[in-house]
Amino acid sequence: MQSQWTDSPELALIAQSLHHASARIRFYRIAFGLASDTQQLGVGEISSILADMTRDGRVSYDWQGGEGCARSELRLVFLGLLCLETALPLGGGIAITSYDGRWQLRGAGDRIRWEDGAWSGDVINTAGEIGADRVQFALLLDELQQQGRDLTTEVGDTSALISF
What we know:
Distance between the termini: 57 Å
CATH class: Alpha Beta
Mean pLDDT: 88
CATH superfamily: Histidine kinase-like ATPase, C-terminal domain
CATH architecture: 2-Layer Sandwich
CATH topology: Heat Shock Protein 90
Structural class: alpha+beta
Helix content: 40-55%
Shape: globular
Strand order of the largest sheet: 2-4-5-7-6
Number of domains: 1
Radius of gyration: 17 Å
């Protein structure tokens, strides 16, 4: 006999929330965890994380970054995604490409909200601390410097591109 709760909308919502939380944890472990050049992640794992993050989210991701990459590079990409998400207040899509050793993250949406200060390292709030809404910018800029990469940006009304 099947339980009356098996197909309930409440359990479906709980399962969906758990799935999304699990995806966020996998994403955050890469973005905020330790990374080395010797650790590689394949396209299957990367695509799985991004697909799970996209499900029921306001931002979708399109991985075109090749067959995989070093965890240290993926850390930059994921931090870049977190930063670029802030420029898409109404949601949208972000395409991730890699060409000739350079990553490009292109966000597109109905509206772009760009904060020049955050992208140039002005992440300290009035209390003299890095605000929770800016920590990803500080980490991205620090990691770019450690890896000897430069950041370029292009911004329009409905799209924004970051490259490193």
